[in-house]
What we know:
Elements: H1 7-14, H2 21-35, H3 46-55, H4 60-76, H5 78-81, H6 89-97, E1 98-102, E2 112-118, H7 128-145, E3 152-157, H8 164-167, H9 172-184, E4 190-196, H10 203-211, H11 215-218, E5 221-224, H12 250-263, H13 265-270
Parallel strand pairs: 2-3, 3-4, 4-5
Antiparallel strand pairs: 1-2
Helix pairs in contact: 2-3
Amino acid sequence: MIVPITDIQLKEIQNFCPRSKDEIDQDVDIVRHWLNKQPHLPKTSDEFIKKVLFSLKYRTEKVKLVIENYYTVKELFPQIYEDLDPTSETFRKHVEAVHMFPLPKLTPDFHRVLCYRMATTDAKAFCPDNQLKRNEMMWNWLFDEDALTLGDIWIFDLTNMDSMAQWAHFNLSFMKKILKINMEAKPVRIKRVHFVNIAPIAETSLNFIKHFFPQKYKNRILFNATFESLQGLYPIDMFPNEWGGKAGNMAELSRRMHEELIKRRSWCIAMESLKSDSSKRIGQSKTADASILGVEGNFKKLCFD
Length: 305
């Protein structure tokens, strides 16, 4: 599904944030010591901690906060983080409705590109929570499969998004969940977000979406009239056939991503239990703050680099 990162690529990626083995081991020990005092959080591997440390530039206090948030949203949003069986009928229907997949190759500057396009114009085929569920499963699979990357690029092809009924799904509740999960509860660097092939009807909705991003990220959200405008930014060959590339057609790439999750069905289902248990939380409120969609009010604002 994805082309493995070579040793040469991995060394170049690591050089963007150089750290000796002893320094990394020391950082892992700091985070591990903190985790051992958090009975409400699940067991976490050293490999996972190392990847989070790299993604957050070895800032251990931020790493602690993101790991806390990462597991807490899984408890607070069960509609997204439960029922993760990729062979279920609900999951299969969403695969038919939305093409979602990573591009096989990294960009020349070592970013992973995630692509999205509705496979139908039927507004009833789109379920926001299922969209987030499938996206989280894909992202977690990539975080586990990729040795390291320098961040994510999202590309949304809006070819089949041409009705207000479809855009109505992108409401305030949906947008807050996206921001809460991706900017406060995941060790991810979002480098750019492209919206391509935009119909006139989408302009209002896109400006609404952009409004909720922090100022830093507003500059990274780009509206592209056609896909050709991206060809100066990325090697064209790495893209799907529909965009003039050679990576394969979008339906096939999406199907292959689904097959990868099916191969690791037990791993997907096991992720359901990897969440916080607020009944065991020490020294913090066990009640949810409804004003921020159930995510605890003591979550702090993060600005990822």
